[in-house]
Amino acid sequence: MVRACWNLDGGALCLMQGDITTARVDAVVNAANSSLAGGGGVDGAIHRAAGPQLLEACQKIVAARGTLPPGQAVTTPGFDMPARHVIHTVGPIWHGGDSGEPETLRSAWVESLREADAHDAVTVAFPAISTGVYGYPADQAAALALEIAAESLKATRVEKIYVYLHGETSWQTWLAEATKQFGEP
Ligand code: AR6
Protein backbone atom coordinates (compact mmCIF):
# COMPACT_ATOMS: atom_id res chain seq x y z
CA MET A 1 0.00 0.00 0.00
CA VAL A 2 1.46 3.36 -1.05
CA ARG A 3 0.97 5.97 1.64
CA ALA A 4 2.17 9.38 2.77
CA CYS A 5 1.64 10.63 6.34
CA TRP A 6 1.95 13.88 8.26
CA ASN A 7 1.97 14.30 12.03
CA LEU A 8 -0.14 17.35 12.72
CA ASP A 9 -1.44 19.13 15.80
CA GLY A 10 -4.01 16.71 17.32
CA GLY A 11 -3.23 13.62 15.24
CA ALA A 12 -2.06 12.23 11.93
CA LEU A 13 -3.24 12.53 8.37
CA CYS A 14 -2.38 9.90 5.76
CA LEU A 15 -3.00 9.73 2.05
CA MET A 16 -3.47 6.13 0.92
CA GLN A 17 -3.52 4.79 -2.61
CA GLY A 18 -6.13 2.05 -2.80
CA ASP A 19 -9.60 0.73 -2.18
CA ILE A 20 -11.35 2.30 0.82
CA THR A 21 -13.50 -0.79 1.45
CA THR A 22 -10.39 -2.60 2.76
CA ALA A 23 -9.62 0.12 5.34
CA ARG A 24 -9.19 -1.19 8.90
CA VAL A 25 -10.59 1.86 10.65
CA ASP A 26 -13.43 2.69 13.03
CA ALA A 27 -15.42 4.50 10.34
CA VAL A 28 -15.44 4.70 6.55
CA VAL A 29 -17.06 7.74 4.93
CA ASN A 30 -19.21 7.13 1.86
CA ALA A 31 -19.71 9.65 -0.97
CA ALA A 32 -23.42 8.86 -1.25
CA ASN A 33 -26.41 10.47 -2.97
CA SER A 34 -29.35 12.07 -1.15
CA SER A 35 -31.59 9.02 -1.49
CA LEU A 36 -28.92 6.74 0.07
CA ALA A 37 -29.86 4.25 -2.62
CA GLY A 38 -26.36 3.09 -3.50
CA GLY A 39 -24.87 3.95 -6.88
CA GLY A 40 -21.62 3.84 -8.82
CA GLY A 41 -18.09 4.80 -7.79
CA VAL A 42 -17.08 4.49 -4.17
CA ASP A 43 -20.73 4.24 -3.08
CA GLY A 44 -21.21 1.09 -5.18
CA ALA A 45 -17.96 -0.40 -3.89
CA ILE A 46 -18.95 0.23 -0.25
CA HIS A 47 -22.42 -1.29 -0.74
CA ARG A 48 -20.92 -4.37 -2.40
CA ALA A 49 -18.37 -4.83 0.38
CA ALA A 50 -20.79 -4.19 3.27
CA GLY A 51 -23.51 -6.47 1.86
CA PRO A 52 -27.27 -6.05 1.38
CA GLN A 53 -27.90 -5.11 5.03
CA LEU A 54 -26.34 -1.72 4.31
CA LEU A 55 -29.02 -0.81 1.76
CA GLU A 56 -31.72 -1.94 4.19
CA ALA A 57 -30.27 0.29 6.92
CA CYS A 58 -30.11 3.23 4.48
CA GLN A 59 -33.70 2.70 3.38
CA LYS A 60 -34.86 2.73 7.02
CA ILE A 61 -33.13 6.05 7.58
CA VAL A 62 -34.74 7.62 4.51
CA ALA A 63 -38.16 6.24 5.49
CA ALA A 64 -37.81 7.70 9.00
CA ARG A 65 -36.32 11.13 8.27
CA GLY A 66 -36.39 11.70 4.51
CA THR A 67 -33.56 12.13 2.05
CA LEU A 68 -30.15 13.37 3.18
CA PRO A 69 -29.47 16.94 2.01
CA PRO A 70 -26.04 17.73 0.50
CA GLY A 71 -23.55 18.68 3.20
CA GLN A 72 -25.10 16.49 5.89
CA ALA A 73 -24.03 13.08 7.22
CA VAL A 74 -25.62 10.03 8.82
CA THR A 75 -24.15 6.81 10.29
CA THR A 76 -24.94 3.11 9.81
CA PRO A 77 -23.02 -0.02 10.83
CA GLY A 78 -20.32 -1.28 8.45
CA PHE A 79 -21.83 -4.81 8.31
CA ASP A 80 -19.47 -7.06 6.28
CA MET A 81 -16.72 -4.44 5.97
CA PRO A 82 -13.80 -4.31 8.42
CA ALA A 83 -14.95 -0.80 9.48
CA ARG A 84 -17.45 -0.63 12.38
CA HIS A 85 -19.36 2.31 10.92
CA VAL A 86 -20.20 3.80 7.56
CA ILE A 87 -20.78 7.55 7.60
CA HIS A 88 -22.84 8.52 4.57
CA THR A 89 -22.48 12.05 3.33
CA VAL A 90 -23.56 13.85 0.18
CA GLY A 91 -21.13 16.20 -1.52
CA PRO A 92 -22.07 18.99 -3.93
CA ILE A 93 -22.55 18.48 -7.65
CA TRP A 94 -20.12 20.84 -9.43
CA HIS A 95 -21.96 23.58 -11.36
CA GLY A 96 -18.97 25.87 -11.95
CA GLY A 97 -18.19 26.85 -8.36
CA ASP A 98 -20.56 29.79 -7.82
CA SER A 99 -23.48 27.75 -6.49
CA GLY A 100 -22.20 27.19 -2.98
CA GLU A 101 -20.14 24.12 -3.89
CA PRO A 102 -17.21 24.93 -1.55
CA GLU A 103 -19.56 25.55 1.41
CA THR A 104 -21.36 22.26 0.78
CA LEU A 105 -18.12 20.30 0.41
CA ARG A 106 -16.78 21.87 3.61
CA SER A 107 -19.99 20.92 5.41
CA ALA A 108 -19.85 17.31 4.12
CA TRP A 109 -16.34 16.91 5.61
CA VAL A 110 -17.13 18.76 8.87
CA GLU A 111 -20.39 16.89 9.47
CA SER A 112 -18.77 13.52 8.69
CA LEU A 113 -16.02 14.20 11.22
CA ARG A 114 -18.64 15.31 13.75
CA GLU A 115 -20.51 12.02 13.21
CA ALA A 116 -17.24 10.11 13.65
CA ASP A 117 -16.58 11.92 16.92
CA ALA A 118 -20.15 11.26 18.12
CA HIS A 119 -19.65 7.52 17.48
CA ASP A 120 -16.26 7.45 19.26
CA ALA A 121 -14.44 6.73 16.02
CA VAL A 122 -10.76 7.51 16.47
CA THR A 123 -9.65 6.39 13.00
CA VAL A 124 -11.61 7.51 9.93
CA ALA A 125 -11.17 6.85 6.20
CA PHE A 126 -12.46 9.31 3.58
CA PRO A 127 -12.75 9.08 -0.19
CA ALA A 128 -12.24 12.15 -2.39
CA ILE A 129 -15.87 13.26 -1.98
CA SER A 130 -17.51 14.86 -5.07
CA THR A 131 -14.47 14.45 -7.35
CA GLY A 132 -15.89 11.58 -9.42
CA VAL A 133 -19.41 11.57 -10.86
CA TYR A 134 -20.16 14.91 -9.15
CA GLY A 135 -17.36 16.63 -11.08
CA TYR A 136 -15.68 18.80 -8.42
CA PRO A 137 -12.16 19.76 -9.60
CA ALA A 138 -9.77 17.46 -7.74
CA ASP A 139 -7.17 20.09 -6.80
CA GLN A 140 -9.77 22.45 -5.33
CA ALA A 141 -11.48 19.64 -3.43
CA ALA A 142 -8.13 18.45 -2.06
CA ALA A 143 -7.08 21.92 -0.88
CA LEU A 144 -10.38 22.47 0.95
CA ALA A 145 -10.68 18.98 2.40
CA LEU A 146 -7.10 18.88 3.72
CA GLU A 147 -7.61 22.21 5.52
CA ILE A 148 -10.74 20.87 7.21
CA ALA A 149 -9.12 17.56 8.09
CA ALA A 150 -6.22 19.37 9.79
CA GLU A 151 -8.63 21.63 11.74
CA SER A 152 -10.72 18.63 12.80
CA LEU A 153 -7.76 16.73 14.24
CA LYS A 154 -7.46 19.61 16.70
CA ALA A 155 -11.18 20.06 17.32
CA THR A 156 -12.39 16.42 17.69
CA ARG A 157 -11.28 13.19 19.35
CA VAL A 158 -10.53 11.75 15.90
CA GLU A 159 -6.81 10.95 15.89
CA LYS A 160 -6.17 9.54 12.43
CA ILE A 161 -7.67 10.60 9.13
CA TYR A 162 -6.92 8.49 6.07
CA VAL A 163 -7.84 9.75 2.61
CA TYR A 164 -8.11 6.85 0.15
CA LEU A 165 -7.31 7.83 -3.40
CA HIS A 166 -8.28 5.77 -6.38
CA GLY A 167 -5.96 6.05 -9.34
CA GLU A 168 -2.59 7.69 -9.97
CA THR A 169 -3.90 11.13 -11.04
CA SER A 170 -5.97 11.57 -7.91
CA TRP A 171 -3.03 10.41 -5.76
CA GLN A 172 -0.63 12.91 -7.40
CA THR A 173 -3.09 15.78 -7.01
CA TRP A 174 -3.70 15.16 -3.31
CA LEU A 175 -0.02 14.53 -2.60
CA ALA A 176 0.88 17.87 -4.21
CA GLU A 177 -1.81 19.74 -2.20
CA ALA A 178 -0.88 18.08 1.08
CA THR A 179 2.82 18.82 0.53
CA LYS A 180 1.91 22.46 -0.16
CA GLN A 181 -0.07 22.70 3.10
CA PHE A 182 1.94 20.50 5.49
CA GLY A 183 5.41 20.16 3.95
CA GLU A 184 7.18 16.98 2.85
CA PRO A 185 5.56 13.79 4.19
N1 AR6 B 1 -12.04 3.43 -2.94
C1 AR6 B 1 -11.63 4.72 -2.89
N2 AR6 B 1 -12.00 5.65 -3.78
C2 AR6 B 1 -12.79 5.27 -4.79
C3 AR6 B 1 -13.28 3.95 -4.94
C4 AR6 B 1 -12.86 3.00 -3.96
N3 AR6 B 1 -13.25 1.72 -4.00
N4 AR6 B 1 -14.07 3.89 -6.05
C5 AR6 B 1 -14.07 5.13 -6.58
N5 AR6 B 1 -13.31 5.97 -5.84
P1 AR6 B 1 -17.57 9.06 -6.83
P2 AR6 B 1 -18.94 11.58 -6.07
C6 AR6 B 1 -13.02 7.42 -6.03
O1 AR6 B 1 -18.04 9.21 -8.23
O2 AR6 B 1 -18.18 12.34 -7.09
C7 AR6 B 1 -22.27 7.67 -6.80
O3 AR6 B 1 -22.98 7.05 -7.83
C8 AR6 B 1 -13.26 8.02 -7.40
O4 AR6 B 1 -12.18 7.70 -8.26
O5 AR6 B 1 -17.62 7.72 -6.18
O6 AR6 B 1 -19.07 12.16 -4.70
C9 AR6 B 1 -23.16 8.13 -5.67
O7 AR6 B 1 -24.28 7.27 -5.49
C10 AR6 B 1 -13.32 9.50 -7.05
O8 AR6 B 1 -12.01 10.05 -6.95
O9 AR6 B 1 -18.36 10.08 -5.83
C11 AR6 B 1 -23.56 9.50 -6.07
O10 AR6 B 1 -24.68 9.48 -6.93
C12 AR6 B 1 -13.93 9.52 -5.65
O11 AR6 B 1 -13.90 8.16 -5.19
C13 AR6 B 1 -22.36 10.03 -6.83
O12 AR6 B 1 -21.68 8.87 -7.31
C14 AR6 B 1 -15.38 10.00 -5.63
O13 AR6 B 1 -16.06 9.59 -6.82
C15 AR6 B 1 -21.41 10.77 -5.93
O14 AR6 B 1 -20.37 11.31 -6.69
Automatic annotation (TrEMBL):
<dbReference type="InterPro" id="IPR002589">
    <property type="entry name" value="Macro_dom"/>
</dbReference>
<feature type="domain" description="Macro">
    <location>
        <begin position="1"/>
        <end position="182"/>
    </location>
</feature>
<dbReference type="InterPro" id="IPR043472">
    <property type="entry name" value="Macro_dom-like"/>
</dbReference>
<protein>
    <submittedName>
        <fullName>O-acetyl-ADP-ribose deacetylase</fullName>
    </submittedName>
</protein>
<dbReference type="Pfam" id="PF01661">
    <property type="entry name" value="Macro"/>
</dbReference>
